[in-house]
Amino acid sequence: MKTILRSLLLLFLLAFSLQSCEDQDDVDSPANLQVNDFIWKGLNQYYLWQEDVPNLADDRFNNQDALNSFLSGYSEPENLFENLLNKPISKFPKGEAIDRFSWIVKDYTVLEQELQGTSKNDGVDFRLSYKPGSTTDLVGYVRYIIPNSDASKKDIKRGDLFTGVNGTPLTISNYRQLLLESEGYTLNMAQFNGATVEPNGKSLSLVKTTLDENPILINKVIVSGSHKIGYMMYNGFYANYDTQLNEAFGQLAAQGITDFVLDLRYNGGGSVKTATRLASMITGQFKDQIFAKEKWNAKVNAAYETEDPESLNNRFVDNINGTKLNSLNLSKVYILTSDGTASASELIINGLAPYITVVQIGDYTVGKNVGSVTLYDSETFTKIKVNPNHKYAMQPLVLKIVNSAGFGEYTDGLKPTYEQLEYVPNLGVLGDASEPLLNTAISKITGAAAKKVQQDRGKTLKTFIDAKSINGIRNQMYVEQAPEGLLKTLNKQ
User: Which long-range contacts (CB under 8 A, 24 or more apart) does 90-97 make?
Assistant: First the structure.
C-alpha cells in the first residue's frame, strides 16, 4: 500500500518547480547523451542535496538544448555524476566531504545482485589496513569466511594476514587492480612480528565464483548460569533473506532465550524495510509505532507532507507478507559494533533507542544517517520500461533518516556504551563465548568478569577499506524504489 501511495501522491510536484525549464521536453536528448541526461534529471529530482548544487538547480537550464550543451561537456558519465554531487568524498578525501556514499554503476544487474548479497566472491571477508608505520603499504586480515565459498575449502581462517597478491605488495594505489580485477589470485600470507607485519613465505590461491552470502553467519544460544543468551552474527540487511531471518528468530524464541546479543560489527547496512523488520523481531510490543522517519529533499518532502505524510514513516510490524513475525519482546538488547558498522545497522541502534535499552559494545560506528535508492533510466526512474540502450544505474543519497524522537545527528558515529576495539593478534573465534567482544557482552549480562583485552588504539591497525566496499556494495541504507509517477511531472521542464 505504501508503494502505491508513493506512486500516486506526487503527480503535481513540479507543476510549480522547474517552470523556467518547461520547454525541455520539446527537444530529445541525442543518443550519445542519454546516460548523461538520465544522470542530471535523476539527481535534479531526487538528490538529497539538490538545492546545494548550482548545476542541479531547477532553473539552471532554460530548455533541453541548453541542458544538452552542458551535458556534452562530459564524455564519461561517471565524471558528470561526481561533478553533480555535493562535495563527494572522491574530491574531498580529508574530512571535508558531505556526500560520502552516492555511487553509479555501468550494469544495474550487478548492483541489484550486490544489494541482495550476491557477488563474484572467493569467500574471504577481509579488511585492509595500513601497515604499522606506513601511509601507503597495506596489510589485509581475514574477518570471516563465507560458507560454501572457495575459501571455505581452503586453509585460511579468521585472523590470517596477507601483505601481497600474486607476489606484488599491496598498496593504496594497486589494491583494486590486484583484488578486484581478476577471477582469482594468490594471497601472499604474513604474520605479526612484534610491532611489525612480515611475510611468512606461505601463499594461498583463491578463485571467485558467483556467491550468495546468507547474512546470518551465526545463530546460537549460549547458556551462562541462569541466562540463555541468544547470539546472532548478522552481516547484511538483504531483503531476500528476511524469511530466513524470521525463522532464525523463531529458533531463538523456541529455546526460551533470556537475553540477546546482535553482532553487527561487519554489517555495512542494506534495506530500510529489513531493518524495520529486524527491529520488530527484537521487540514485538511496539506494533504500528514509528521506528524511523524519512526526510527527502525539499521538493519531494513537501509533496509527501502535503499529500501523504504517512509515507515518510517506517513503523514496527508484526508480519512479513502475512507471515507472523517471531518476536522476542525484549526490553534490552546488546549490539556489537566496529568502525565498519554502518547505515541500516546504525538505524537499528538509533531506531530502537527511544523504546528499549540498547547496550552498544565495540567501536564508534561509521556515522551514515542517510539513505539511497536505485534510479534507472526510465520515465519514472524505476525499472518499468527502462531504456534498453544502456544498463547504467545510480545509487544516490536521497533521504536522511531519524528515529521517532527526531534524532539522527550521528555523522561522527554512534558512541558505544562500552568502548572495545578489535585487536588483530587476538581476534578470537566468532560465536565462541571467549571471543573478546562477545565475552564482554556476556559479562555485562551475567555480571561475571570479562577477559582482559588489548585496548590501546595506537596498537590497532588503522583501517583503510574492507572487502564489501571493494566489491562495490559500500555502506548502504536504501529504500526499495523511487516513488513511481513523480517524473511524469518532473520531466516537463
Answer: none
pLDDT of residue 21: 44
C-beta of residue 395 within 8 angstroms of C-beta of residue 478: yes
Q: How many other CB atoms sit within 10 Å of the CB of residue 373? A: 22
Alpha helix positions (H), 326-395: 344-352
DSSP code per residue over 90-138? TT-TTTT-SB-S-EEES-HHHHHHHHTTEEEE-SEEEEEEEPTT-SSBE
Residue 454: the pLDDT is 63
Same fold, 121-211 and 216-457+471-478: no
**What residues of the chain score a pLDDT lower than 50?**
4-5, 7-26, 485-493
Q: Is 454 helix (H, G, I), strand (E, B) or coil?
A: coil
For residue range 351-375, list pLDDT tens digits in order. 999 999 999 999 999 999 999 999 9
Tell me how far apart the alpha carbons of residues 475 and 344 are, in angstroms, rounded to a whole number: 9
C-alpha 419/C-alpha 425 separation (Å) is 18
Among positive and negative, which fits the CA dihedral 256, 261, 267, 268? positive
Angle at 14 between CA 491 and CA 384, to 5 degrees: 45
The CATH number of 121-211, from 1.10.600.10, 2.50.20.10, 3.40.190.120, 2.30.42.10, is 2.30.42.10
Where does residue 412 rank: exposed (0-12), middle (13-18), buried (19+ CB within 10 A)? exposed
- Domain locations along the chain: 2-106, 121-211, 216-457+471-478
pLDDT at residue 161, rounded to an integer:
97
**Which CATH architecture fits 216-457+471-478?**
Alpha-Beta Complex (3.90)
Quote the pLDDT of residue 193.
87
Cell numbers that stand for 451 in this block: 577477559
Can you read off the three cell numbers belonging to residue 294? 524519512
Task: Report the side by side order of strands in the sheet with 370-372.
Answer: 270-271, 477-478, 370-372, 397-403, 290-296, 313-315
Cell 546472532 sits at which residue? 232
Best CA proximity match to 233, nearest among 428, 423, 459, 414 = 428
The reply to whether the predicted model has a pTM over 0.85 is yes
In DSSP notation, 383-427 reads STT--TT---EEE-EEEEEEETTS----TT-PPPSEE----GGG-
All 3 cell numbers of residue 32? 550519445
Q: What is the pLDDT of residue 485?
A: 43
pLDDT at 16: 37
